[in-house]
Amino acid sequence: MKKEDNYFLKEYVKKIGSVKDDYESKSIYRYERNKKIKILKNLLKNTNDNILDFGCSNGSYFDIIKDLNFQKIFGLDISSERLSIANQRGYMTINSVGQKIPLKDKSFRTIICIDVLVNILKESDQIEILKELERILDNDSHLILSIPTKKAF
Protein backbone atom coordinates (compact mmCIF):
# COMPACT_ATOMS: atom_id res chain seq x y z
CA MET A 1 0.00 0.00 0.00
CA LYS A 2 1.33 3.43 -0.93
CA LYS A 3 2.07 5.97 1.80
CA GLU A 4 -0.65 8.30 0.51
CA ASP A 5 -3.22 5.47 0.59
CA ASN A 6 -2.25 4.63 4.17
CA TYR A 7 -2.70 8.29 5.17
CA PHE A 8 -6.08 8.35 3.43
CA LEU A 9 -7.13 5.21 5.30
CA LYS A 10 -6.21 6.66 8.69
CA GLU A 11 -7.96 9.97 8.01
CA TYR A 12 -11.11 8.24 6.72
CA VAL A 13 -11.30 5.93 9.75
CA LYS A 14 -11.06 8.99 11.99
CA LYS A 15 -14.09 10.43 10.21
CA ILE A 16 -16.24 7.29 10.19
CA GLY A 17 -15.39 6.18 13.71
CA SER A 18 -14.55 2.80 15.10
CA VAL A 19 -16.49 -0.42 15.40
CA LYS A 20 -18.06 0.85 18.62
CA ASP A 21 -19.90 3.54 16.65
CA ASP A 22 -22.10 1.12 14.69
CA TYR A 23 -25.80 1.92 14.33
CA GLU A 24 -27.04 -1.55 15.23
CA SER A 25 -28.91 -0.35 18.30
CA LYS A 26 -31.32 1.85 16.31
CA SER A 27 -34.64 0.23 15.43
CA ILE A 28 -34.83 1.93 12.01
CA TYR A 29 -31.44 0.40 11.28
CA ARG A 30 -32.78 -3.08 12.08
CA TYR A 31 -35.84 -2.46 9.89
CA GLU A 32 -33.69 -1.30 6.95
CA ARG A 33 -31.27 -4.20 7.46
CA ASN A 34 -34.09 -6.77 7.43
CA LYS A 35 -35.39 -5.34 4.15
CA LYS A 36 -31.92 -5.60 2.62
CA ILE A 37 -31.52 -9.19 3.81
CA LYS A 38 -34.81 -10.16 2.19
CA ILE A 39 -33.77 -8.54 -1.10
CA LEU A 40 -30.34 -10.20 -1.03
CA LYS A 41 -31.88 -13.61 -0.47
CA ASN A 42 -34.25 -13.10 -3.39
CA LEU A 43 -31.59 -11.83 -5.80
CA LEU A 44 -28.75 -14.19 -4.93
CA LYS A 45 -30.25 -17.64 -5.23
CA ASN A 46 -28.47 -20.87 -6.15
CA THR A 47 -25.03 -19.49 -6.79
CA ASN A 48 -21.74 -21.30 -6.37
CA ASP A 49 -19.37 -18.40 -7.07
CA ASN A 50 -17.20 -16.20 -4.93
CA ILE A 51 -18.71 -12.95 -3.68
CA LEU A 52 -17.22 -9.60 -2.70
CA ASP A 53 -18.87 -7.58 0.04
CA PHE A 54 -17.51 -4.14 -0.85
CA GLY A 55 -17.36 -1.94 2.24
CA CYS A 56 -18.06 -4.94 4.45
CA SER A 57 -17.22 -3.11 7.70
CA ASN A 58 -17.23 -5.70 10.50
CA GLY A 59 -18.80 -8.40 8.34
CA SER A 60 -22.34 -8.22 9.66
CA TYR A 61 -23.77 -9.81 6.49
CA PHE A 62 -21.56 -12.92 6.67
CA ASP A 63 -24.19 -15.34 8.02
CA ILE A 64 -26.71 -14.28 5.38
CA ILE A 65 -24.18 -14.61 2.55
CA LYS A 66 -22.88 -17.93 3.88
CA ASP A 67 -26.39 -19.39 3.75
CA LEU A 68 -26.57 -18.52 0.04
CA ASN A 69 -23.89 -21.13 -0.83
CA PHE A 70 -21.10 -18.91 -2.10
CA GLN A 71 -17.74 -20.69 -2.36
CA LYS A 72 -15.70 -17.92 -0.76
CA ILE A 73 -16.81 -14.69 0.83
CA PHE A 74 -14.44 -11.76 0.42
CA GLY A 75 -14.81 -8.51 2.30
CA LEU A 76 -13.14 -5.25 1.32
CA ASP A 77 -13.02 -2.30 3.67
CA ILE A 78 -10.89 0.70 4.46
CA SER A 79 -10.81 0.03 8.22
CA SER A 80 -8.37 -2.62 9.42
CA GLU A 81 -10.11 -2.59 12.82
CA ARG A 82 -13.44 -3.53 11.30
CA LEU A 83 -11.83 -6.04 8.92
CA SER A 84 -10.30 -7.82 11.89
CA ILE A 85 -13.81 -8.59 13.14
CA ALA A 86 -14.98 -9.52 9.63
CA ASN A 87 -12.07 -11.94 9.37
CA GLN A 88 -13.07 -13.57 12.67
CA ARG A 89 -16.57 -14.06 11.25
CA GLY A 90 -15.19 -15.86 8.20
CA TYR A 91 -14.52 -13.25 5.54
CA MET A 92 -11.37 -13.37 3.43
CA THR A 93 -10.46 -9.71 3.96
CA ILE A 94 -8.91 -7.05 1.76
CA ASN A 95 -7.81 -3.74 3.32
CA SER A 96 -8.01 -1.13 0.57
CA VAL A 97 -9.50 2.10 -0.65
CA GLY A 98 -12.26 1.63 -3.20
CA GLN A 99 -10.61 3.71 -5.87
CA LYS A 100 -7.64 1.28 -6.20
CA ILE A 101 -8.89 -2.25 -5.56
CA PRO A 102 -5.94 -4.68 -5.56
CA LEU A 103 -7.71 -7.39 -7.58
CA LYS A 104 -7.43 -8.66 -11.14
CA ASP A 105 -9.91 -7.64 -13.82
CA LYS A 106 -13.08 -9.73 -13.89
CA SER A 107 -12.38 -11.31 -10.49
CA PHE A 108 -16.01 -11.60 -9.34
CA ARG A 109 -19.43 -12.40 -10.77
CA THR A 110 -21.19 -11.08 -7.67
CA ILE A 111 -20.47 -7.91 -5.69
CA ILE A 112 -22.66 -6.37 -3.03
CA CYS A 113 -22.20 -2.81 -1.84
CA ILE A 114 -24.56 -2.16 1.06
CA ASP A 115 -24.88 1.47 2.21
CA VAL A 116 -21.31 2.37 1.22
CA LEU A 117 -21.54 5.00 -1.51
CA VAL A 118 -23.55 7.32 0.70
CA ASN A 119 -20.40 7.69 2.83
CA ILE A 120 -18.26 8.71 -0.15
CA LEU A 121 -18.76 12.45 -0.26
CA LYS A 122 -16.97 13.45 -3.45
CA GLU A 123 -18.80 12.55 -6.65
CA SER A 124 -15.47 12.00 -8.41
CA ASP A 125 -14.56 9.35 -5.79
CA GLN A 126 -17.94 7.67 -6.24
CA ILE A 127 -17.34 7.49 -9.99
CA GLU A 128 -13.83 6.06 -9.50
CA ILE A 129 -15.22 3.40 -7.17
CA LEU A 130 -17.97 2.42 -9.59
CA LYS A 131 -15.40 2.15 -12.40
CA GLU A 132 -13.25 -0.11 -10.20
CA LEU A 133 -16.24 -2.29 -9.37
CA GLU A 134 -17.01 -2.53 -13.08
CA ARG A 135 -13.38 -3.49 -13.76
CA ILE A 136 -13.39 -6.38 -11.29
CA LEU A 137 -16.84 -7.64 -12.33
CA ASP A 138 -16.86 -10.53 -14.77
CA ASN A 139 -19.19 -10.75 -17.75
CA ASP A 140 -22.76 -11.79 -16.94
CA SER A 141 -22.35 -10.60 -13.37
CA HIS A 142 -24.31 -8.96 -10.55
CA LEU A 143 -23.60 -5.71 -8.74
CA ILE A 144 -26.09 -5.06 -5.98
CA LEU A 145 -26.00 -1.55 -4.51
CA SER A 146 -28.07 -0.10 -1.74
CA ILE A 147 -28.36 3.41 -0.43
CA PRO A 148 -30.04 3.94 2.97
CA THR A 149 -33.22 5.94 3.29
CA LYS A 150 -33.12 9.34 4.92
CA LYS A 151 -34.81 7.83 8.00
CA ALA A 152 -31.83 5.54 8.59
CA PHE A 153 -29.81 8.58 9.65
Structural class: alpha/beta
Question: Strand percentage, roughly?
Answer: 15-25%
**Element order, helices and strands?**
HHEHEHEEHE
Please report the total strand number as a whole number.
5
- Average pLDDT for all residues: 82
Let me know the largest β-sheet: 5 strands, parallel
Please compute the radius of gyration using only Cα atoms: 15 Å
Topology:
Layout: H1 3-16, H2 27-43, E1 51-54, H3 62-66, E2 73-77, H4 80-89, E3 92-95, E4 108-114, H5 123-136, E5 137-146
Parallel strand pairs: 1-2, 1-4, 2-3, 4-5
Can you give a write-up of this model?
The structure is a single chain. The protein contains five helices and five strands; from the N terminus they run ααβαβαββαβ. The protein has 153 residues and is α/β, with parallel strands linked by helices. Helix 3 links the parallel strand 1 and strand 2. The chain starts with a helix and ends in a 7-residue tail after the last strand. Residues 15-25 have low confidence and may be disordered.
